[in-house]
Design brief:
4 domains; Lambda Exonuclease, Chain A
């Protein structure tokens, strides 16, 4: 039998998997337990070091169980081990807000289970026949401690531990049996098409070689190459050769998740055996009338933990595919929460399709997958041009003074201790605001962490815990809860603070804002990318590639590859009208712009999209266009569209209609929209896609110095333009035409960024 380690799990992981029961409940319980638990541990451990001559804290324990050819390494840390009068006591420390007189020795059997598991390993390692387990409960409010001791013999500990391990191994055994089938299917798997498209084989080979070297690959691969299948297929082949264990397909858009699912469906038809789950946001997949995840308001939350293990085993025995519709079907069948079901399935699946935030956002990332086991993961990051701004949002956070004032009003005269702290936070923000008053500005920024403010926010969190547990349903409760989470997020982001950050102070009318702003997210992203087995970062618009390498977390060792479009260059006709579309001159050019648009769309009949620089300019241009040429055959995008309104807008682009859709560059219709064939034959792009001038973009410009303007405005802008153009040609048989309107495209810098296979002709008004 091989000594190769097949599976690894923590003591806590096994206990929670086997013994956890009850219902989901998102109503407030202490969310700071990890921090407070650490505080409780350190206090009791320090006392024990004084009381006992022979005391060890945070003792690492591990044991390899070999059962039915499966090796399972289980590890963990005992909070403390006491040796006194020939007795050995393993102590587990638990923090609580509950009155200790309400806690008895049978308060929580999971706590005893953890101590008993450690006791078994310690007895085994030290040839002991009996051992004492101590549970010590520490009240965070009063600092009081209540302890319970039980003595166990080795035989009963062994029986208990093997019950847990064997129960856990039921699902492991299912997975191990499947692994043999999986690896054989990967070995036999053929590429799901008769031939490779131009550039497709090269992309797949680059992906395979990058994974082989456990590297990071940046790939610009235009629409039509087949990026999704060309990254998933070589990743599967890599896993088949023992390189990595999971494929994580990360996206920014729902539509891209669908494309990944379709790629797996093609591979299933070729005989692939590989379990894949799609994680959809809770708000989008919730089956309840309202997103209230507790047993009183949702039947899918009731007894979730009691049911879920049997559900998981049943599902993974019989199924490979757990996409959005599948998850909903199974959730309804077993009456379990679909979102939590997808998360629990992700532990047992070989592939995961999910949003960026589950991998990178410090507030919602799936730590079990992306921290504890990230070295097993092959990360495939699609539409990676979106990751720069998304990452900045993930690693930034702001605090608004009005939120503090609301909390003050709610708790004044009712919760004196908490009010004292929230009022101190308000005073500290007033003190910080004086920095603006001293320079007579509405904003300023500098690389400063306001430590006194952070300290007060931490104090607020600790004090608010008791209020939030005891005061559910009272007036203003939700306002305090909202600020509690704001404070936690602000602190979490502050802990990432380094030279890549700045703090922005802003006065907007009656609102004062302190924003921790991540200028360069590369270091934060790099932690996840580097710790993964390998990462493949790809998009149709990853140009210039150095910009994305710099900001997404690559370095000089990262692999880089760029592919030309596989389509006939004559299929896309590109034109340029050199009109001054700089912000200061836009207004005066509206009439001539309307004339250009009307002439272009009437030269070749069909459906067009017109992309304008902003909603404000869109409204003005559309109004003038309708005044001159009439409304017939035109539609215009509103600023805030529901999913239904978005679908209604896109439905107008049918083969029967001849419609001109007015929209914005960088908006919801400029990427992730698939209108193949004659559903869209042309696009008009007005301007160079510059992001809106803002404090944040100006900070980015200043930070990157000589590259600053390009990194903050030029490159993000051109990326939006390229995405908009990408709506026109979707398949090998598509033909279309594009008109760029802006004289800046004559600048060599812009021409260099644009695709080299574009043959741009000057466009003339008749």
């Amino acid at each position: 039998m091989s000594d190769k380690l097949l599976f690894k799990e923590s003591v806590r992981g096994i206990i929670e998997y086997v013994l956890k029961n009850g219902s989901l409940d998102d109503r407030f319980v202490s969310r700071g337990r990890a921090v407070e638990g650490t505080i409780a541990h350190s206090i009791l451990q320090k006392d024990n070091e004084t009381i006992y001559e022979d005391y060890e804290k945070e003792v690492a324990l591990k044991h390899k169980f070999i059962i039915n050819d499966i090796n399972l390494l289980v590890d963990g840390r005992a909070d403390g081990i006491i040796k006194e009068n020939k007795r050995v006591i393993i102590e587990e420390i638990k923090s609580t807000y509950k009155d200790l007189s309400c806690i008895d020795s049978d308060y929580n059997m999971l706590h005893w289970a953890q101590g008993k598991f450690y006791g078994y390993i310690y007895c085994l390692d030290n040839n002991l026949q009996t051992i004492d387990i101590r549970l010590s409960y520490f009240n965070i409010n009063t600092s009081e401690v209540r302890s319970f001791d039980k003595t166990y013999n080795f035989g009963e500990l062994k029986e208990f531990v093997y019950f847990l391990v064997n129960k856990y191994l039921e699902v492991i055994t299912v997975k191990e049996k499947f692994n043999k089938i999986k690896y054989k299917s990967i070995k036999d798997l053929k590429f799901p098409f008769e031939s490779y498209r131009k550039g497709q084989r090269e992309l797949a080979v680059n992906c395979f070689n990058s994974i082989k070297q456990q590297g990071i690959l940046f790939a610009q691969a235009p629409t039509g190459i087949g990026k999704t299948i060309s990254t998933i297929f070589p990743s599967l082949k890599s896993i088949g050769e023992g390189r990595g264990q999971k494929i994580i397909y990360l996206t920014a858009k729902t539509i891209t998740r669908t494309v990944a699912e379709e790629a797996y469906l093609k591979l299933y038809k070729e005989g692939l055996e590989f379990k894949v789950v799609t994680i959809t946001a809770k708000e989008k997949i919730c089956l309840n009338d309202e997103v209230k995840c507790n047993p009183d308001d949702c039947i899918y939350a009731k007894d979730y933990f009691t049911k879920i293990n049997d559900v998981i085993i049943s599902l993974i025995k019989e199924n490979n595919k757990f996409f959005g519709k599948d998850i909903i079907e199974y959730a309804k069948r077993y009456k379990v929460c679909p979102f939590e079901l997808s998360l629990d399935l992700s532990d047992w699946c070989d592939g995961i399709i999910c949003d960026y935030n589950y991998a990178f956002d410090p507030r919602v990332k799936l730590k079990r997958i992306f921290e504890e086991r990230n070295e097993e993961n092959i990360l495939l990051i699609d539409e990676a041009h979106n990751l720069v701004n998304r990452a900045r949002d993930m690693y930034s956070y702001q605090l608004e003074k009005s939120k503090v004032m609301t909390v003050n009003k709610v708790i004044k005269g009712k919760v004196p201790n908490l009010y004292k702290i929230s009022n101190a936070i308000n005073k500290e923000m007033i003190l910080i605001r004086r920095e603006l008053e001293e320079v007579n500005k509405d904003f300023l920024y500098h690389n400063v962490v306001y430590k006194d403010l952070i300290k007060l926010l931490r104090t607020f969190i600790n004090e608010a815990e008791s209020y939030l547990i005891k005061s559910k349903g009272t007036l203003g409760y939700d306002d305090v809860l909202d600020f509690y989470y704001i404070a936690r997020s602000f602190i979490a982001v502050s802990e990432l603070y380094n030279k890549e950050y700045t703090t922005i102070l802003k006065q907007e009318k009656n609102e004062f804002i302190i924003k921790i702003f991540c200028i360069n997210p590369s270091l934060n992203l790099k932690q996840t990318l580097k710790s993964a087995y390998s990462s493949v970062i790809f998009s149709a618009t990853l140009s210039p590639i150095k910009y994305y390498v710099d900001l997404i977390g690559g370095d000089e060792n990262s692999f880089r590859v760029k592919f030309d479009s596989p389509f006939n260059r004559e299929n896309l006709l590109t034109y340029l009208y050199s009109l001054d579309m700089r912000y200061v001159n836009r207004e005066r050019n509206i009439d001539i712009l309307c004339k250009i648009i009307n002439q272009f769309i009437n030269e070749v009949q069909g459906n067009y999209m017109v992309f304008l620089p902003s909603f404000d300019y869109l409204a003005k241009v559309y109004k003038r266009y309708v005044d001159i040429y009439g409304k017939d055959g035109t539609i215009v995008q509103g600023e805030s569209l529901s999913e239904a309104q978005k679908e209604e807008y896109l439905a107008q682009f049918s083969l029967e209609n001849k419609v001109v859709g007015f929209t914005v560059v960088g908006g919801m219709f400029s990427e992730g929209v698939d209108l193949p064939g004659d559903k869209l034959i042309g696009a008009i792009i007005v301007g160079v896609g510059f992001p809106k001038v803002s404090i944040e973009n100006n900070i980015i410009q200043e930070y990157f110095d000589t590259n600053g303007f390009d990194y903050s405005y030029t490159y993000p802008g051109i990326n939006k333009v390229l995405q908009s153009v990408g709506r026109v040609i979707r398949t090998e048989t598509d033909k279309g035409r594009v008109l760029l309107i802006d004289n800046r495209y004559n600048n060599p810098k812009y021409r260099f960024i644009l695709p080299s296979d574009w043959i741009i002709e000057d466009y003339k008004l008749k």
